[in-house]
Design brief:
By secondary structure, the chain is an all-alpha fold. Helix content is 72%, strand content 0%. The chain has 16 helices and no strands. The chain is globular, with a radius of gyration of 19 Å. The chain starts with 14 loop residues before the first helix and ends with a helix. The model has no long low-confidence stretch (mean pLDDT 93).
Length: 310
């Protein structure tokens, strides 16, 4: 067994490396608690839909609890998903400079230990899900199929980011499932907008690994688009803003929500202008900045919900 304190190459100097007990560090790295940005990005569509649904229902009484439960659920289920991803990719990760120091390819944990840890995280996620109505529970469980197949998509298609978008945007449906016990057209359009956003930001992220991916035969939209990435981002980010705008109009959103969408759109434009695909560190910073873009939109939606129930 390798040294459990060994750091992951693309995530150093975080609280896991410095504060967590040595025995816990490989597991916290498996669940990406040393790099929580993915959990935040998974959470954003959850919070968007919760706020928009509460505004449409003119009832925010259950919103604080829903926000907290979505927060917990997003972090533990992203951890379970990342653990599953690392289990399926353990051989590939060992061939990529950025990922070969992860717990499984570096030998910090065994595959069996990782599987047990994944199940434990999923059970916590199930406990969160059981706090909601039956329709929301079924909707949440349905997402597991997409999570299960995602790690294999980069082996067979140039568009694995679409499947990631389907998984990471699922929360856009959950807020409506929790609030109304159904999924209507507004939720579906919000979901489509979130998928477009995910395709955009994960394409930026994937530009960190294009050289290694080419060597080992891994496909991605970053490799597919190449030098045309900026133009394609205009398409997908523009589509995200348009579709989310349609969802807001369908939900009869008021001016705070539109202001949040405008700030969200401005942030996406800033990313496109700043992007340099041959600068991995910049790509990572721009990818991480999508947390702030998502929070800007959420702030507008939350203010709208509060205004409509005042």
């Amino acid at each position: 067994m390798s040294d459990t304190s060994a750091r992951v190459a693309d995530s150093t100097g975080n609280w896991v490396d410095t504060l967590a007990p040595h025995w816990a560090r490989p597991y916290l790295r498996l669940s990406r608690f040393d790099r929580p940005i993915g959990s935040w990005l998974l959470l954003m569509p959850c919070w968007w839909s919760a706020a928009l649904a509460a505004a449409m229902a003119h009832d925010v009484r259950g919103l604080p609890l829903t926000i907290v439960l979505f927060f917990i659920g997003a972090f533990v289920m992203r951890g379970a998903g990342c653990t599953w991803n690392d289990i399926t990719d353990r051989d590939l990760d060992g061939k990529v400079e950025r990922t070969r120091s992860r717990p499984l390819p570096s030998g910090q944990v065994t595959t069996r230990q990782a599987l047990v840890f994944m199940v434990a995280q999923a059970l916590v996620g199930l406990a969160v899900l059981l706090q909601f109505n039956r329709f929301a529970i079924a909707t949440g469980i349905a997402s597991l199929l997409i999570v299960a197949i995602y790690p294999f998509m980069k082996r067979i298609t140039w568009w694995p980011q679409i499947v990631l978008g389907l998984a990471f945007s699922w929360g856009a449906l959950m807020g409506f499932a929790v609030t109304f016990g159904r999924i209507d057209a507004t939720a579906l359009v919000l979901y489509a907008g979130a998928i477009s956003w995910v395709i955009g930001y994960d394409t930026i992220y994937a530009h960190q690994d294009t050289e290694d991916d080419a060597l080992i035969g891994i496909k991605s939209t970053a490799r597919l688009f190449g030098a045309h990435t900026r133009q394609v981002l205009v398409l997908f980010y523009g589509l995200a803003v348009m579709l989310i705008g349609v969802a807001l109009a369908s939900g009869e959103a008021r001016w705070p929500a539109w202001l949040g969408l405008a700030a969200f759109a401005a942030h996406l434009v800033w990313q496109i202008v700043r992007l340099r695909i041959n600068d991995p560190e910049l790509c990572l910073r721009l990818f991480k900045s999508n947390k702030h873009a998502g929070l800007l939109l959420f702030a507008g939606l939350l203010a709208d919900a509060m205004m409509r129930t005042a």
